[in-house]
Amino acid sequence: MINKHDIKRGVEVSCIIGGKTCPVALIQVENGHVYLCQSVQNGDMCQDRLGYPFSWSVGNINRIQENDTESFFLGTEVKNVKLLSRPDWDEEVNYVYHESPF
């Protein structure tokens, strides 16, 4: 399960975007907006897509309320968001483009 504390740059998730399975996506936060950087579905582009060709906007981070992260993704065509891993924020993270198997 993903919670509001997981909505940070570099957190790895899996999800469905616009009906397409996205086995790996990285969360990016730019200017208060949250994006899912991935190689499956083109959408609103953020500046730094963390090595991926596409990003998908899921809205303003201020919409996240305590214990209500699932509703953050409602109406964004993003479904079934699952946490895969969290980066170690104490270290510099180098992002590499991952080819989607889909």
Please give a structural write-up.
By secondary structure, the protein is mainly β. The chain has one domain (4-85). Helices cover 4% and strands 37% of the residues. The chain contains 1 helix and 5 strands. Strands 4-3-2-1-5 form a 5-stranded antiparallel sheet, with no helix packed on it. A hairpin with a 2-residue loop joins strand 2 (20-30) and strand 3. The protein starts with 11 loop residues before the first strand and ends in a 17-residue tail after the last strand. The model has no long low-confidence stretch (mean pLDDT 79).
Q: TL;DR?
A:
This protein has 102 residues and is mainly β. It has one helix and five strands.
List keywords for this structure.
single chain, 102 residues, mainly beta, five-stranded antiparallel sheet, 1 helix, 5 strands, 4% helix, 37% strand
